[in-house]
């Protein structure tokens, strides 16, 4: 899922948790880079849980702010009801500790490197 960190592409010797942590940090770095390039006013950051609670809100916002067209809000809400959030921790406590330590280590490394 998603775009992996190119530094890890094609490597089979990498710990899977480290690879996922690197992917997460790479995605965040790219997002910030694109926001700087294009302007932060051209981005909507929508939290996963908020989207699950009200997916119709995105369609309504697109209609209002981008397309500037009227829509049948009741029809949109009926077509895009709330979703079940699956954002749950599935790691063991040891895996979670390893992931948190890896995220901290990689974030520090990238901060030193990218300056």
Question: Explain this structure to me?
Answer:
- It contains 5 helices and no strands.
- The chain is mostly helical.
- The protein is extended, with a radius of gyration of 19 Å.
- The two termini are 28 Å apart.
- The model has no long low-confidence stretch (mean pLDDT 93).
Give a short overview:
The protein has helices spanning about 15-40, 50-55, 55-65, 75-80, 95-115.
Keywords:
61% helix, mainly alpha, 115 residues, extended, single chain
Question: Layout of helices and strands, plus pairs?
Answer:
Elements: H1 16-38, H2 48-53, H3 56-67, H4 73-79, H5 93-114
Helix pairs in contact: 1-5, 3-4
Low-confidence stretches: none
Distance between the termini: 28 Å
Instruction: Provide mean pLDDT, rounded.
Output: 93
Task: Give the overall silhouette.
Answer: extended
Biggest sheet overview: none
Order of helices and strands: HHHHH
Helix content class:
55-70%
Name the structural class.
mainly alpha
Amount of beta strand: under 5%
Please state the CA-atom Rg, rounded to the nearest Å: 19 Å
Count of extended strands: 0
**How many helical elements?**
5
